[in-house]
Amino acid sequence: MEKNYKKLKFIISHAKSYGFIFPSSEIYDGLKAVYDYGQYGILLKNNIKEYWWKSMTQLHENIVGIESSILMHNQIWKASGHIDEFNDILLYNENTKKNYRLDLLIEDFLEKMNNYNNILFDNKNINYNINYIKKNFKKKLFSYIYECFNKNKILDIKSLINKLNIYEPGYKIYKINLMFIVYLKNLDNNKKLYLRPETAQGSFINFLNVKKTSKIKIPFGIAQIGKVFRNEIIARQFLFRMREFEQMEMQFFVCPGEEEKWYDYWKEYRLKWHLSLGIKKDNYRFYNHDKLAHYSKDACDIQFKFPFGFKELEGIHSRTDFDMKNHEKFSKKKLRYFDFKKNISYIPYIIETSIGLDRMFLAIFSSCLKEEKIKNDINHKRIVFKIPYILSPIKVAILPLVKKNELTFIGKKIFKKFKLYYSLVYDEKDSIGKRYRRQDAIGTPICLTIDYDSLKDNCVTIRYRDSMNQKRIPILKIKKNIEKSINIKNILNSI
């Protein structure tokens, strides 16, 4: 646990020190669970978005992209169930003035438990294996809690909390809706609206618009990337749980009866997408949901091994026709698809893939930020961000060996030639060794060094981040060498 805490602390410190992530409103003492992306952070974030977007909309001829608005009609959230169902059970300690989410307390409790038998339910006479006990106990436990809450049996929940010994005395229990409320104000009245808690509903309500304007046939998908807002009670673990974050979601509309086939397809495809980035397979696992959301038939997470353990990175859900049926009911508009081959009209079923962009950012930091010893130099280490080349914020650093006019002239000429093709940095400050370390720390995969020999042979030294290998190449072959390493097509073709 101590080792994991140190790792997360190391990530947070590095992210700030090297211009990736800054605490929001820091000069005013900050704002909890809200962060700003720095000059390198925004480049990395945009590169993740680009790779996801291309893998969805360019590799699949039946997926198109949209961008829906953050503010939407209130009836959308009534139809989707968010106004009635999108809640957390909150424990508030009146002595310490701290808030706790009951489900997270229970999750932590279950992670620490070695024996799940005979705690709340009598399993004495049943010889289950430990994994089944854990899964079954958790499922029963959450069902029991929500049943108690719906029937207003608060004392029963308190009794459970005390029995499990997961919380200190002096608390009250509340049910909190997770949507932020905003108001449209004018002279006559104030209209209450909600900041969207997910992007999915924007795809559902634009189903007819996309179908009519693109002439696309089922099965087809609608992809979008956008900001969402949740009034998280316990926002913690850096970028993992925030109140303002970004989602990359794709809603795939299918014929009823074909949802299982497409659910399995998207589970496999999404894991393949993650693995295509070269991060070790051991960092990923599937986790099937015990307690399904009110709209789901099947649901699983692709979990990632963060410094604080395996947690959800991406969700794949079989949403049935719940959303489309409800929007048809509430809007009084037919949200149907007519299949000319089968001569039937139906409300499509939906398979959803949803990944948190900020969590993906954190997953990359968790797995790629290294501190390693330098070969043949036991007294020195380097911090290196071994990020996949295509995601690197800066692709190439151009470094004159020393700050001399004849060398800087060549360096700036190369910079001017390639700045339209790649994100570059030109750096002539400090020794060449310090500049290499600086580029290693921000993840730059390639450095080009101009030295005095460059004046004679029209060559530069190319240095690769991961291996630190160096070789001389002609200036005329710079582009060819760069393309070998950072062409996004090479990785897209591997999915």
3D structure, described in words:
Keywords: Aminoacyl-tRNA synthetase, ATP-binding, Cytoplasm, Ligase, Nucleotide-binding, Protein biosynthesis. This is Glycyl-tRNA synthetase. It comes from Karelsulcia muelleri (strain CARI) (Sulcia muelleri). Residues 164-400 form the Aminoacyl-transfer RNA synthetases class-II family profile domain. Pfam families: HGTP_anticodon, tRNA-synt_2b. With 495 residues, this protein is of the alpha+beta class. The chain folds into three domains: 2-66 and 196-366, BirA Bifunctional Protein, domain 2, CATH 3.30.930; 87-177, no CATH class; 394-492, Anticodon-binding domain (Rossmann fold, 3-Layer(aba) Sandwich). 37% of the residues lie in helices and 28% in strands. The protein is built from 17 helices and 23 strands. It has a seven-stranded mixed beta sheet. A five-stranded mixed beta sheet has the order 20-19-21-22-23, with helices on both faces. α2 (41-57) crosses α12 (357-368) and α3 (74-80) crosses α11. The radius of gyration is 26 Å and the shape is globular.
